[in-house]
Every structure is written in C-alpha cells, then in structure tokens.
Amino acid sequence: MAATEKKNAAPALTPATFSVAGTTVEFPVYQGTEGPNVVDISKLYSDTGHFTFDPGFMSTASCESKITYIDGDKGILRYRGYDIDTLADNCDFLEVSYLLLNGELPNKKEKEAFDRKMTLHTMVHEQLHFLYRGFPRASHPMAVMAGAAASLAAFYHDSLDVNDPEQRELSAYRLIAKMPTLAAMAYKYSIGQPFIYPQNEMGFAENFMHMMFATPCEKYTVNPVLARAMDRILTLHADHEQNASTSTVRMAGSSGANPFACMSAGIASLWGPAHGGANEAVINMLEEIGDVKNIPEFIKKVKDKQSGVKLMGFGHRVYKNYDPRAKVLRKTLEEVLGELGKIDEPLLKIAIELERIALSDEYFIERKLYPNVDFYSGIIYRAMGIPSKLFTVLFAVARTSGWIAQWKEMMDDPKNKIARPRQLYTGEKQRDFIPLGKR
Ligand code: CMC
User: Fold this and answer.
1) pLDDT tens-digit series, residues 311-358
2) Residue 374 annotated as catalytic
3) 367 lines ligand 1 (CB under 6 A)
4) How far apart are the CA of 299 and the centre of ligand 1, in A?
5) pLDDT computed for residue 26 by the predictor
6) Residue 56: predicted pLDDT
7) Residue 51 φ then ψ, to 5°
8) Long-range CB contact pairs, 341-349, < 8 A, 24+
C-alpha cells in the first residue's frame, strides 16, 4: 500500500531499501507523532516471495493507533497525549474511559451524559445468575469472567452487528458498565454471599466496591478514600498500547467477531502469569521474605541465576525506567494505608526497603530493572480486603475500557482486514502415504 493511499498515514520518509535473494525493493517508511518510525513491509511477499519472521513481535508494529503512547526508556505512558499521572490525579475512571473512546476529554455536560449512560447499563440480565450458579464455588474468578463476558452476546442481540457504529457504541457502554457487576458477582459467588445489585447514585468505583463488600443485611458505606484509590488503580490499568491481551482483542475482532466474544478472548490472555498475574506473586514474595532483615539474603538469591528466583514486580519488556504507574501507586498505597491506620503494615516496610536496595544494586541498575505496576498494587488490594485471586479480575475490569477503545478504533478503520499471520514452516515435506496395515 503506498504511503499516500494509507488512511491516517503519518508523513512518508525516505523509503527503506531492502535486498534479498538478488532482488532489491523499496518500502515506504512512516513517521508517527512520537516513537520509532516504521517500515511498511506489507508488499515484501508479493515483491520478493519472502515473509518477515518476528516471534513475540520484538520489532513489529501490529497496527496504527492514536490511543496510547509509551516511551519505555523515559518511563512515559500517555493516553491520547495526556501523561498518566496527570490523568490519575485529576480525572476519574469514566472520564478517562471517555478520553480513550473518543480521543478528547469530555466537558462537564459530556461527562454528565456519559456517566449517566454508563450508569444505565450497570445491571446484568437476571438470567445470568443461573449461569453463575453453574460454576463450582471454587472456580477461579477469571474462568467465570471469561465465560460471563462471552455470554453477554447471548443476551444483547441488539448490539451484535459490528458493522453498525451505533451498535458498536452500545456494546462499548454495556461492556465497560457491566464488567464491575460481573466481577463483583464472581467474588460474591465464590464466598457464598448473595449478589448485590448496582446502585445508580454511586460513582463507578464506589458502586464496584459496594457490590463487592455490601450484604443485604446492613447498610454499607464505601470509604471515599478507598473508592478514590480504586478509581485511580482502574485509570492506571485502563490501557497499555498493544500488549498481549489488547492484541488478542484486536485479532479476535479482525474476523468480525462480536465485541463480547473479543473481550472474553482478552480476559483469557490477561489471565496468564506473564501478563496480569504478577501482583499476586509480589504478595507471595513479600510474605515469604517475612522481615526486612531477610532482604539481603533474598536479593542474593535473585542475583543467583541458578536459584530461578526473580524479584517479582520488577522489570518490564517495554519500561527500562521506573514504570510511571508504579510511582502513582506508591503514593496511593501510602494514602490507603494511612486511611486504614495500617501505615506500619509489615509488607509495605519490606517493599520499600526491597525497592531501596534493588535501585542501588549494580545487578538491577545494569539491567535497567525498576518497579513495575504490579509491585505496589497487590499491597493496596490486600489492605482493601480484596483476595489475591481477584487481583487479575480487577485488571480486566479496568482494561475493558482500553480493549473496547482499541477494538472500536480497529473497527472504525475502513482498511481493517482479518489478521492472518504467516509462518516459517519447518515440518515434513510431502511424503508417501502408507496404509494403516503396512505401518
Ligand atoms: N528479577 C531478577 N532478574 C530479572 C528480573 C527480575 N524481576 N527481570 C529481568 N531480570 C533479568 C533477567 O534475568 C535478564 O538477566 P540476564 O541479562 O543476566 O540474562 C535481564 O534482567 C533481562 O530480562 P529479560 O527476561 O530478558 O526481560 P524481558 O523483557 O523478557 O522480561 C519481565 C520482562 C516482566 C517478564 C521480567 O522482567 C519479569 O519476569 N519480571 C518479574 C515479573 C513481573 O513483575 N511481571 C509484571 C510485568 S508488568 C505487568 C504487565 O504489564 O502485564
């Protein structure tokens, strides 16, 4: 595709020249508004008969996007051009969801209308209660969430036409609004308590916490400091560019699959321990260390490659600097523990000392290993009384707004095609068939 034909194409630069097997071809080079330029190799196969090979997408931009920007070396994360810490300090999660979906921050009137519309979609079909009751109580809540998200397609037939922008919009509202309800139901079901219905007069995070912790027996007031902390955590996790689960959502959606099925695919990908599950591992690690005095011994083990021990919550494929989300979380953690009178929480002391030692140790400095988003989030969740099995579910609730914004961006692009990677085939060449009796 020529640079000039490309929808929303960034300015074309001097083409890249590439030679393979005696053929030299030129490829357009596009410049983004920030970040590395890309070489458009889409004609490589037709021009040279070769594919590119890049398992793990180490050098491959899988799409063009205007939503989220990360500079891993500088520790920058921006949604639609706004720094994550500015958004976390000044906006609420729904405001940020509006930004992700629409590209601009809402004005007061737009925000009120958006919040109201979201609120109207928080309740789920009553029949879903029966779906939940089919699961064993000990099910992992991510299994329940993957099933529940996909099942929404069975209830909301009026928003399944992915070619209709209004239906896409309606699905976006439904998904963002219903995920906290589904997540709280998964928790309530696991502990054998009745489901708590959403309360429309409450804010998004407040309502979520109310559905998690209230019972029908007595009035439950959500602590506003904790609700604000939860809201901020949701904002910090809302989007993260083309990570594994977001790419999964885009890939599933590229075939025209409905958005509920796509979110379920995203949840499945997020469930993996290399993606959404590390904050639980951080808690286990801090508990295992047990006391500040045991940290030097633990660090020794981490540095010994034979031990197989990693400093969980440290390091990131993209960030080679302090994860900007971890900075906000550290501040939030202190606010939460202060509010709960748990500032002496032993796990916090261990975490702070661990961070101090790691950041001054040559092993971590050399490898550019800094705290990531998972280093502090688990301690906050634990202080709030959220069980560790639910940590990844909270991530899914937050990431739904990013997933759906990315899905909508893809669906809005008239040049969207089914994602169909190719392969380097290393299996058998054609061979003679031997009938069963002669093998
Ligand atoms: N503790 C000790 N050493 C580490 C760690 C760590 N947490 N992370 C990386 N290293 C070492 C690694 O052994 C390697 O050393 P060497 O060069 O001597 O072989 C070097 O640092 C480079 O690491 P890598 O494994 O090549 O880096 P990667 O980009 O492939 O892995 C990572 C990134 C996040 C999987 C890894 O840093 C890790 O396992 N961290 C702990 C788990 C964790 O906190 N994950 C949450 C990620 S953030 C959540 C999300 O965005 O989904």
Assistant:
1) 999 998 889 988 999 999 989 998 999 999 987 778 888 998 999 999
2) yes
3) yes
4) 15
5) 96
6) 92
7) -100, 165
8) 342/383, 345/379, 345/383, 346/291, 347/283, 347/286, 347/287, 347/379, 347/382, 348/379, 349/292
What secondary structure letter does DSSP report for 135?
S
State if residue 313 touches ligand 1 by the CB under 6 angstroms criterion: yes
Closest CA to 167 of 158, 177, 175, 176: 158
Name residue 11's beta-bridge partners. none
Residue 6 clears pLDDT 70, i.e. is over it: no
State yes or no: pLDDT of 212 exceeds 60: yes
Which phi-psi region, left, alpha or beta, contains residue 181 (left: φ > 0; alpha: ψ -120 to 50)? alpha
pTM of the shown model: 0.91
Q: What is the mean pLDDT of residues 411-427?
A: 94
**Rounded distance, CA 412 to CA 415, Å?**
9
Does the structure show a pLDDT above 90 at 399?
yes
**What are the residues whose beta carbons fall under 8 Å from the beta carbon of 400, sequence distance 6 or more?**
175, 176, 179, 263, 266
Q: How far apart are the C-alpha atoms of 376 and 350, rounded to whole Å? A: 11
What separation in Å is there between the alpha carbon of 168 and the centre of ligand 1? 37
Between the CA of 314 and the centroid of ligand 1 the distance, in Å, is 7
User: Residue 306 burial by CB count (10 A; 0-12/13-18/19+): exposed, middle or buried?
Assistant: exposed
Catalytic residue of the set 240, 374, 413, 432: 374
Question: Residues in the chain, how many?
Answer: 439
Residue 168 contacts residue 411 (beta carbons within 8 Å): yes
109-145 per-position pLDDT tens digit:
999 999 999 999 999 999 999 999 999 999 999 999 9
Token code pair at residue 23: 């053929």
Percent of the chain whose pLDDT exceeds 90: 85
Q: Which residue has the tokens 């308590």?
A: 193
Q: Is residue 256 helix, strand or coil? A: coil
Most confident of the ranges 98-112, 278-292, 347-361: 98-112
Rg, C-alpha atoms of the chain? 24
Ligand 1 atom 19: the closest Cα is on which residue?
305
